[in-house]
Amino acid sequence: MKKQKAIFYILLCWLIFSAPAQNPEIGKQKNTDWSETGLSVQQELQIFKKCYPDVSFELSWDEKVADWKITVGNYNKLQSYYWCDGKYLPYDEIKNKDKYWRVISRYENRVLDPADFTPEMTERIREFSSSRKTGRVSSKFIFCGIYDDLTRLSTEQHIKQIPFLGRTVNAHEYLKPKLARVEKRILAASQKNPEVQKFLDELYSTESYNWREIRDVNTRSFHSYGIAIDILPKMWGKKIVYWGFEKNNGNKDWMLIPLSKRWMPPKAVVDIFYDEGFIWGGTWAVWDNMHFEYHPELIEASKYQYR
Fold first, then answer.
1. Residue from 307, 294, 300 nearest 223 by CA
2. Cβ burial 100-112 (10 Å sphere, 16+ → b, else e)
3. Residue 284 CB neighbours (<10 A)
4. Alpha helices in 148-261 (DSSP H)
5. Is 211 exposed, middle or buried (0-12, 13-18, 19+ CB in 10 A)?
6. Of 3, 16, 46, 225, which residue is least crowded by CB atoms under 10 Å?
7. Are 200 and 190 within 8 A, CB to CB?
8. How would you class 277 by CB atoms within 10 Å of its CB: exposed for 0-12, middle for 13-18, buried for 19 or more?
9. How far apart are CA 40 and CA 83, in angstroms?
């Protein structure tokens, strides 16, 4: 029973993008909304500054709005956002704040095993996946300031061809040194780890930039920012890589597909990406096992203890 309760709580975190972590000074009250972290705006700004050292983040109080204003400076541009309980919204979106999730929410680098699901957990995931078109969406506005990705034109000025794992991937130029470190470590690991070498031998494609919205969700994909990358093996390893493919094919119990039938990169590869600031879509309740996103702020925030 204790194990099922623990999995249920973790599941709620995953449904909104993330999960818990390690600093007793953070959070004095128990949160009922699992997107809450207990982090203050000052603490989150320190996280952003640490994760994006080339970007400026200035905090000020706006008396007229009665909220904190965060000014993000990069690429010789300044963009302002309002705290809005961690949603970082431009002024015109403050009135719509209830439609957004927090930017920094809980994240844990762990795969949910459907073998542990209760019927309640299964229905929770089913309900969440069916309401994505009308439910809350992730707030991505602050990333427009960080990456200069407000419009397609400004975004594509920063999309570069980056060599990666023997291929070329079109991604945001900010990722070039990050992907170089990931590549170097994966190639080194392949010399000692047969699973990593097999992963490289079977690699079919690496794709990043694609100006589009997320399937079934009214918000831009992080692929349209050039900071997400999909890695696919040849023939997908004859396994399933993405929950949506199964759901669209009529499988109502896609969330119960055993882990053994899902294609996954080797744990060593996932860990290397994670160490370099990338979260993996295989840890989400609506899993996307080919997908990695550059979100060092979530990884850094996971070092805090949420209550």
1. 294
2. bbbbbbbbbbebb
3. 20
4. 152-156, 176-190, 194-201, 243-248
5. middle
6. 3
7. yes
8. buried
9. 10
In 75-121, which ranges are E strands?
Answer: 77-82, 100-101
Q: Taking a C-beta distance cutoff of 8 angstroms, is the pair 37, 104 a contact?
A: yes
End-to-end CA distance of the chain: 21
Amino acid at 286: V
- Alpha-carbon span 169 to 175, nearest angstrom: 11
How sure is the predictor about 128, in pLDDT bands with cuts at 50, 70 and 90? confident
| pLDDT band of 35, cuts 50, 70, 90 | low
- 8-state DSSP, 239: S
Q: Is the pTM of this model over 0.85?
A: yes
- Of all residues in the chain, the percent with pLDDT exceeding 70 is 84
**CB of 241 within 8 A of CB of 232?**
yes
Question: What is the residue whose two structure tokens read 């015109």?
Answer: 92
d(CA 281, CA 221): 13
